[in-house]
Each structure stands twice: as C-alpha cells, then as structure tokens.
UniProtKB/TrEMBL annotation:
The keyword Transport applies. Homodimer. Belongs to the SLC41A transporter family. It comes from Halalkalibacter krulwichiae. One of its GO terms (cellular component) is plasma membrane. This is Magnesium transporter MgtE. Signal peptide: none annotated. SUPFAM superfamilies: CBS-domain pair, MgtE membrane domain-like, MgtE N-terminal domain-like. Keywords: CBS domain, Cell membrane, Magnesium, Membrane, Metal-binding, Transmembrane, Transmembrane helix, Transport. Coiled coil: none annotated. The gene is mgtE_4. It comes from the Bacteria. InterPro entries: CBS_dom (IPR000644), CBS_dom_sf (IPR046342), Mg_transptr_MgtE_intracell_dom (IPR006668), MgtE_N_sf (IPR038076), MgtE_transporter (IPR006669), SLC41_membr_dom (IPR006667), SLC41_membr_dom_sf (IPR036739). It is a multi-pass membrane protein.
C-alpha cells in the first residue's frame, strides 16, 4: 500500500486521471488500489462526475465501500444518487453497520427503508438495531462488527476463528468472552491469545475485570471512559449484560470532534451554524435567537448608562473609558468561562475542587485587575494629567476584573448543576452580563468621587 506525500501526490493524481481518460481499467485498478484509502478519498473528491462514473464501473462495490465510508455525510448523499441501486445495495452490505446507520439517519422520506429492503437481511438487521437507539448514545455509535468467543473455547480454535472472521471485524486487538447466554464475562487481548499455549482454555487466561459501557450511556461519557483507560475499543452491553457491540477509538475521535463543535457553537452563540456549508438563511435562523436576546441585554446596558446621565454631564471625559471597561470585563469573563467549560468537559473539576477553581480564578482576577489598574493609572495621568480620573478608572478596572472572573467561572458550574450543557453559558452572554456589571461599578465609583473630579 502506497502512502502519498506532497512530492508524489500530484504525480499519482495525474496518473490516475490519465488512466481514467484513457479508459484503461487494468492500469487504473493497479494504480488506485495500491494507495492508502485516505489518499483514494482525497483523489476521488477532486474528480468530475464523468470520471466518477468510470470509477464506479472499474471498482467493485466492496472496493468502493471503503471510499464511501470516508466521505462526509453531505458528500455521501450526493454520491449515492449517482450510483446504480444494485451497486449501492452491495456497497452497503460491505460497509460497517454503524457507518450505514449514520448515512441512513440523514435520508428523508422512505429512502432509508428502501435501502434496507435491498440489503442482505443479516446486514440490514444490524443497521436497524443501531438506528433503534437514541441519538448520541453508545448504542447509536457502536459497531456490530466485532469478534466474540466462548469461555470454553481453546486457544487454537479461537486463532482459527480469527482467520475466518478478522477480515470483516473492525478491530481484533481485544476479543470479548461471552457465556452460553451471550453475557459478557471476560476479555482477552490478541497478545495474550498469541502467547498462550494452543491447548489452553480461554476461561483460564481471560481477564474478568471487564470495563464496559451501557448501551444507553451518553456518547461523550463513552469517549471519556475510553480516553481514561487508553482503550482501542470498549464493549457495549445491555442492561442484562448481553454483549451488543463495541465502540472503537476511531468512533471516539468522531465523538470528540462532534462534541467540540457543539460546545464551540454554544460558547459562540452559533449552535448549528458553525458548518461553512450551511446556507446563509439557515445560519441566520440559528444565530438570530441569541442575537435578539443579547440585543435586549444591550438595552439594559443603555439603561445603566442613562441612570448615570448626571455624572456623565458633569464629567464628559468619563464616557471615553466606557468601551475600555466593557471590553475588559467581557474578555476576562470569557477567559474564565473557557477554563470552567473545559474543566467540566474533561471531568477535571470534581465536587471537592469547585471551590479551589473559583478561588484560583478570583485570585487571577485580582492580579489582572491590579496590573491593569497600575498601567491605566500611569497612562491616564500622563495623557490627561488628572490623577483622580486615573484612580477612578484604575480602581473600576480592578473591581470589575476581580468579579468578572468569578462570574465567568461560576455560571457554567450552576448551569451544569441544573443538568444542562455548561457551554450554553456562551461567550456573548457572559460578556454582556459583565459589561453591565462593569458599567455599574465604574459609574458608582465615579458618582461617589464626583466632587473630587
């Protein structure tokens, strides 16, 4: 198998295009199939529809299934409608059940049912089982292509079984041991299997300390567990402890990417609109509720400023520092928000460490506030020649940053306590709240010291 680098990628791409244009089936298969599947996908997505149709003719459904699995969902939908029905049915039969289930889940109408009816009955049943689980659970993301063995088997028989079943399994580095009722009772690694005596009974060499996940466990918790134990795969069991599938490490990568994208959308108040392929109308529809809500928060900000109209009329120069106070409060609060959300996502913030984290953020806010107060005090005094104004602005920044860090760290914790996603304490939300707080502090201090200005 050839893995392309930047130097020979263009050379291979051109060679493959030339074989397609020359309609040289044999040369195309020899060149294309020796590439790594990832490189095959990279080349495939660049070619035009006419060339793609030749590829469907030159590659068997089994060959093409590896390419189809690696495409993004939107690309899969477009390619599917280019395929002959018999060709696509055989392709789905050669794909992993979880990948087929992911694709069928996005199809509308009765198209998914039509595809299942044309598939091999056993393969279709595995796909239906995966689609029956609630979204974003272990059952929904697991694969059915795994190798299970009996506790009464002997090593030589299991190795022979692997020779037959391994090509269709997603991973064979762990073999899961079940009893006569298909209940999970142990696990054995491929290394332990190979190094054991051929006549040894599996029950004597397997580990009974099996870490498994329930089929209804949230996918993010599954990913955390696999990361915690450095597993390549984790078995999925029903409430009766029947082995129903496995979640593999590549599934975990997809889960983490999906969850990170979701959290980014929440934090930026753009949930559902972070994909660049989403239309402008859809993006606006997804973002508008937050924007409208924040617009009303902006009215509160304006009302706060209006309440201190007399102070502003007395010293107009105070208005020049409003953006500075608001931006500093919002930025500091967002930084603390990121710390809290990341800690909750990784599970590093536990019950006993919440107070420690808040105290640390408060201490950080105090030091940031002190540094900014000193810098601003000197700068404002030099520029405006007014030490009292410098004191008001500097002390306001000190108080604002100290409190903003606590708010940024605390709000996600409260939301998490309410069993909601802490990421919904979005950056814009925290920023707006701290803007209002910063203005209240700033104008309260200025009003109190107005006689000295």
């Amino acid at each position: 198998m050839v893995k392309l680098n930047e130097q020979n990628r263009e050379q291979y791409e051109q060679l493959i295009l030339d074989t397609l244009q020359a309609e040289d089936r044999k040369q195309f298969r020899e060149t294309f199939l020796e590439l790594h599947p990832t490189d095959q996908i990279d080349i495939f997505v660049k070619i035009d529809e006419e060339s793609r149709k030749r590829i469907y003719d030159y590659l068997s459904p089994e060959d093409f299934s590896h390419i189809f699995e690696g495409l993004e969902i939107d690309e899969q939908k477009n390619i599917y409608y280019e395929l002959d029905e018999n060709y696509s049915s055989e392709m789905f039969n050669n794909m992993f059940a979880d990948d087929v289930a992911d694709f069928l889940a996005v199809l509308k109408g009765g198209k998914a049912e039509d595809i299942l009816l044309k598939m091999n009955q056993e393969e279709a049943q595995d796909v239906k089982e995966l689609m029956s689980y609630a979204p974003e659970t272990a059952g929904a993301v697991m694969t059915k292509e795994y190798v299970s063995i009996s506790s009464t088997d002997i090593v030589s028989n299991v190795i022979e079984k692997l020779r037959n079943e391994a090509p269709d399994a997603e991973t064979i580095y762990y073999l899961y041991v079940v009893d006569e009722l298909e209940k999970l009772v142990g696990v054995i690694s491929l290394r332990d299997l190979i190094t054991a005596q051929p006549t040894e009974v599996i029950e004597n060499i397997m580990s009974t300390r099996v870490v498994s996940v329930q089929d209804d466990m949230d996918q993010e918790d599954v990913a955390k567990l696999i990361k915690k134990y450095d597993f390549l795969a984790a078995p999925v069991v029903s409430k009766q402890n029947h082995l129903v599938g496995i979640v593999t490490f590549d599934d975990v990568i997809d889960i983490l990417e999906e969850e990170a994208t979701e959290d980014l959308g929440e934090i930026s108040a753009a949930k559902g609109a972070t994909d660049v392929n989403v239309s402008a109308f859809t993006a606006a529809k997804k973002r508008s509720p937050w924007i409208i809500m924040l617009m009303f928060f902006g009215l509160i900000t304006a009302e706060v400023i209006g309440q201190f109209e007399d102070t502003l009329e007395a010293i107009v120069l105070l208005a020049a520092f409003i953006p500075l106070i608001m931006d500093s409060a919002g930025n500091t609060g967002t930084q603390s928000l990121a710390v809290a959300v990341r800690g909750l996502a990784l599970g590093t913030i536990k019950k006993g460490s919440v107070g420690k984290m808040i105290r640390r953020e408060f201490g950080t806010g105090l030091m940031l506030g002190l540094i900014c107060m000193v810098v601003l005090g000197i700068t404002v005094t030099i520029i405006h020649g007014h030490w009292m104004l410098a004191l008001i602005v500097g002390f306001s920044i000190f108080c604002t940053l100290s409190i903003a860090t606590v708010i940024g760290a605390t709000v996600p914790l409260v939301i998490n306590k309410l069993k909601l996603d802490p990421a919904i304490a979005s950056g814009p939300f925290i920023t707006t709240v701290n803007d209002i707080l910063g203005l209240l502090i700033y104008f309260s201090i200025a009003t109190a010291l107005l006689d000295y200005l």
